[in-house]
């Protein structure tokens, strides 16, 4: 690739190393951009451009010369699918597409759906070419909403979405590196307490309900009430954005998703985060498998049954629909779809994982589990390895596949030096959420938390130079569990046996400290089963059993890596240097740690190496770094008690069919 790139540069006369174009002294006038704006002929004499007049009589004609028609509206030629659809005219295809979108947007209770028409309502010069009336004939009385048009902006390109955002959405700006800075509104993170799942005869049995479960029930009727509310809101707008895209790079298990939203920000976010269809795939998209209605800023009605706030994120698995009311935080769409995958995939014996994933030059794959902020994105984005994905994966009999087409990196305190690949991915096309920038230079200040600490960048995975495309890989060799332990008692790295891996996977521990200005706060432990309890749909032991089976079958090794505090607890020590964590991860990948010398820790019984290349040995056992050993022991026991207490609810469950493993897992926790 690189060779080709150079060849092309040379043939274009771009050969000088700094990428600047050489001034041509010969040739017949391919002289655009040669500095003086003029054009040289063979004699090197400059002529004025006006010698070749533009073929336009009016400004409008001139503008029309600027643009040519492109995919996805171009008819397919040559391909097999093309042959099948060859009888369909372009017009017919457009009509079918609109029919499908109109059906998505139809009210299910009123007399008729909206008239949908393609294109930007701002361009009113010509009457709409394709108008689609919803097929139901009005019977009783026609409401005003049925008389208006809803313009559909269908799978717009990033450039088109930038224009929409900058023109119509407050808080949208282009940053100095070309990213689109946006505001997500009042919500700058997900609202897990406002998530609802429809409980019907099927899901009542299949899903995990009750204490500890993320699934808070709602009934079908309430879902329909909220759906109607979202659809009515969307139809009341001049225009809506529609994205038709895919999830899961495994071609056999690809899911078609449609996202209907009110903001260009949402459309660009999903463009980046889901898998982008080729023009051919889009032509033949057909009916989506799952649809999101994102009404964003429009709230739910708090008088509606089951609603406890004006925000509601509702999933209906039977209808294959999700409704979002009262939050504009785009991560709800990403993680809502992830929840859906946590239902659909295990039904096909495929394990869905809240993990990052990368692959070495020799094809060795590593998974990185961990709760938010523990380092999945940071550590899977590794310049020496191929990135398969940073957050959501599937593990099937064929190996691993990324669910998404993009990455969602935390940006707080982002530095070019420590995370160069993420830094460089923040360019044209990337959505930057809730960052603060200089009003004149538009340079982003990544240390500024004025809007939120959860600042984020969403970019297509190919913005990372060594992304593995397609995003699939063989069976994992290493399973790395990340915990950010603000108590500072877990070792920076330990090797786990299978039972310990399962124990820590089911526990899903991390401890973070809420940002505070006034002094030191106690860290709070978070336990989130499967390192993502907010997104799983079935009981944690179901996923755990699948993970154990796969790790056993393919001989993967488990590791626990503490990316949190070192040298004492929060307020005394500091977060372990990213540089050291990277060295630890390198030693796991290379196999060096597998054969290192180990000793066992007290209480948690973790195997810790005595040496890791590039890491000061004394930090490998946290007891060394605490000046007061009693303090250390006390804190260690405190954490151990929290683990024990959290695990109580799982003590009565069997992991898969293996009684022996279940017992081993129960015994793999802290002993004190
Ligand atoms: N030793 C370390 N290891 C990993 N990350 C570190 C370390 N020290 C500091 N960090 C910072 O911690 C953050 C880790 O966030 P990251 O985006 O990787 O989380 P994540 O696990 O992907 O979470 P989410 O699921 O919310 O996307 C980054 O901002 C990174 O710079
Ligand atoms: O979903 C989000 O907002 C961010 C994320 O990746 C997580 O919390 O795991
Ligand atoms: Ca991440
Ligand atoms: Mn995540």
TrEMBL record:
One of its GO terms (molecular function) is ATP binding. It catalyses: oxaloacetate + ATP = phosphoenolpyruvate + ADP + CO2. GO terms for biological process: gluconeogenesis. Signal peptide: none annotated. Pathway: Carbohydrate biosynthesis; gluconeogenesis. Residues 124-135 have a biased composition (Basic residues). One of its GO terms (cellular component) is cytosol. Its EC number is 4.1.1.49. Residues 20-46, 109-136 are annotated as: Disordered. Keywords: ATP-binding, Cytoplasm, Decarboxylase, Gluconeogenesis, Lyase, Nucleotide-binding. It is an enzyme of class 4 (lyase). It is found in: Cytoplasm. It comes from the Eukaryota. Pfam families: PEPCK_ATP (PF01293). This is phosphoenolpyruvate carboxykinase (ATP). It comes from Carnegiea gigantea. The lineage of its organism: Eukaryota, Viridiplantae, Streptophyta, Embryophyta, Tracheophyta.
């Amino acid at each position: 690739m690189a060779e080709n790139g150079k060849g092309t540069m040379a043939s274009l006369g771009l050969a000088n190393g700094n990428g600047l174009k050489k001034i041509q002294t010969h040739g017949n006038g391919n002289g655009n951009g040669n500095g003086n704006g003029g054009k040289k002929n063979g004699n090197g004499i400059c002529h004025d451009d006006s010698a070749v007049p533009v073929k336009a009589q009016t400004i409008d004609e001139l503008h029309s010369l600027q643009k040519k028609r492109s995919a996805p509206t171009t008819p397919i030629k040559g391909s097999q699918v093309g042959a099948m659809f060859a009888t369909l005219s372009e017009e017919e295809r457009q009509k079918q597409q609109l029919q499908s979108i109109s059906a998505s947007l139809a009210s299910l209770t009123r007399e008729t759906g909206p008239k949908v028409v393609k294109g930007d309502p701002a361009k009113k010069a010509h009457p709409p070419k394709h108008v689609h009336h919803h097929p139901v004939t009005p019977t009783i009385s026609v409401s005003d909403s049925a008389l208006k048009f809803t313009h559909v902006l269908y799978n717009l390109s990033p450039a088109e979405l930038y224009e929409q955002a900058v023109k119509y959405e407050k808080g949208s700006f282009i940053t100095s590196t070309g990213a689109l800075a946006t505001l997500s509104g009042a919500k700058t993170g997900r609202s897990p307490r406002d998530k609802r799942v429809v409980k019907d005869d099927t899901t009542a049995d299949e899903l995990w309900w009750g204490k500890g479960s993320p699934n808070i029930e709602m009934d079908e009727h309430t879902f329909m009430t909220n759906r109607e509310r979202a659809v009515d809101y969307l139809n009341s707008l001049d225009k809506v954005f529609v994205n038709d895209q895919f999830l899961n790079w495994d071609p056999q298990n690809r899911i078609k998703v449609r996202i209907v939203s009110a903001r260009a920000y949402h459309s660009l976010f999903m463009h980046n985060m889901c898998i982008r269809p080729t023009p051919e795939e889009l032509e033949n998209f057909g009916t989506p498998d799952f649809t999101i209605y994102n009404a964003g800023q429009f709230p739910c009605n708090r008088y509606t049954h089951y609603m406890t706030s004006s925000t509601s994120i509702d999933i209906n698995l039977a209808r294959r629909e999700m409704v979002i009311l009262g939050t504009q935080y785009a991560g709800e769409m990403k993680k809502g779809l992830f929840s859906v995958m946590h239902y659909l995939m295990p039904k096909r014996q495929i394990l869905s994982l809240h993990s990052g994933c990368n692959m070495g030059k020799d094809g060795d794959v590593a998974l990185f589990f961990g709760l938010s902020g523990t380092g999945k994105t940071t550590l899977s984005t590794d310049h020496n390895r191929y990135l398969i994905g940073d957050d959501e994966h599937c593990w099937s009999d064929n190996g691993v596949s990324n669910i998404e087409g993009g990455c969602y990196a935390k940006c707080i305190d982002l530095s070019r030096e420590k995370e160069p690949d993420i830094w460089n991915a923040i360019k044209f096309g990337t959505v930057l959420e809730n960052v603060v920038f200089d009003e004149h230079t538009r340079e982003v200040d990544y240390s500024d938390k004025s809007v939120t600490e959860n600042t984020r960048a969403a970019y297509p995975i190919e913005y990372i130079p060594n992304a593995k495309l397609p995003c699939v890989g063989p069976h994992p060799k290493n399973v790395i569990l990340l915990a950010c332990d603000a108590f500072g008692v877990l070792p920076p790295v330990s090797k786990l046996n299978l039972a310990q891996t399962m124990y820590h996977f089911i526990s899903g521990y991390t401890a973070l400290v809420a940002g505070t200005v006034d002094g030191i706060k106690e860290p709070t432990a978070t336990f989130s089963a499967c390192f993502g309890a907010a997104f799983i749909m079935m009981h944690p032991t179901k996923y755990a059993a699948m993970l154990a089976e796969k790790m056993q079958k393919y001989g993967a090794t488990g590791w626990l890596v503490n990316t949190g505090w070192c040298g004492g607890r929060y307020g005394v020590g500091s977060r372990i240097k990213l540089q050291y964590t990277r060295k630890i991860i390198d030693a796991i990948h290379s196999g060096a740690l597998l054969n290192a010398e180990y000793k066992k820790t007290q209480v948690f019984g973790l195997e810790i190496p005595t040496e890791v290349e590039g890491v000061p040995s004394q930090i490998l056992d946290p007891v060394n770094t605490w000046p007061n050993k009693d303090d250390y022991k006390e804190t260690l026991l405190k954490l151990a008690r929290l683990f024990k207490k959290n695990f109580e609810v799982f003590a009565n469950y069997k992991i898969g069919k293996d009684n022996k493993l279940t017992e081993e897992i129960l015994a793999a926790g802290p002993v004190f």
